[in-house]
Design goal:
The chain is 34% helix and 20% strand. It is α/β, with parallel strands linked by helices and 268 residues long.
Length: 268
Amino acid sequence: MSEVLVVVDATGEFGVKKVTLEMLTLARALGTPAAVVLGGTGAAQALADKLGEYGAAKVYAAEGEEIDGYLVAPKATVLADLVKRVQPVAVLLASSQEGKEIAARLAVKLDNGILTDVTDLAADGTATQEVFAGSTIVKSKVTRGLPLVTVRPNSLTPAPAPVTPEVEQLAVQGHPAGGPAGRHPSGGRRRRAARADGDPPADRRVRASARAGPAAPATAGGGDRAGKGGAHAGRPRPVQHGVGHAPRSQPGHREDACRTVVDQVGGT
C-alpha cells in the first residue's frame, strides 16, 4: 500500500501528542502510515517506539539545528521534497497553529489544495468537517493534488497497532547566515545581532550615529547634561524661539508651531 505521511506533533517534555496517535489511526484506513519527525537531533529515536505502537511502519527523521532552530519554513521545505519523492496518498498534520501554517506553505510549494479542521477522511479523499460548533457537517475534497489535511484534535479514539518502524534520515538543507524569516525566538535575537558580513552590533551603532549626523545644539541650561553624556545627550533639541516658533503666550502659537514642523520635514 502507498504511504500516508503523518507529521508528528510532539514535545520534548511529554512526547507524542494524542492528536498524532489519532492521525496514525486514521492513516491506517488510507494506506501505510509513515510518521515524519521534524525536530532536534535524536528526536526521532526517542519517539520511534511510541509511533510504532500506533502503526507507523516508517519514521522519516528531519533533525538538526536547521529544523529545530527555526519555526515553519524549513519544515515545509523538507516536507515538500519528501512528498515529491515518495508520492504519498495523503498528508496529515495536526490542526494546531504550527500545523496549519506548515500545511499552508506546503500547499503553496506543491500547488496543492488544502483542507483544515478535518474530523475524518475517507479512502477516496473525502474529508468531513464540522462547522458552526458542530451544527453543520460538511463533506469536501481537494480539487488539485493529493489530500493535504489538518486533523482536529479529539476527532477519533486512537487505537494501537504495533509494528517495528524503520527510521530513515532525511537530508536537511542549511540556511545562509541570518536565517530565513521565521527564526525561532530562542535564537533569533542572537542571529539578528550579526549581519552576514560579520559586523558586530557595536560597529553598526557607530555607523548609524554617523549617518544621523551631529547632534543638535543643546538648549539653554542643558549643556552640562549633554556634555556629560546624560540621558538627553545626542537627542534632537526643541525648536528655539526666534526661529519660527512663537511663544505660547502669543496668539496663534499653535499655527506657527505646525508650520515650523512641516517646514523642517520638507513640507509646504
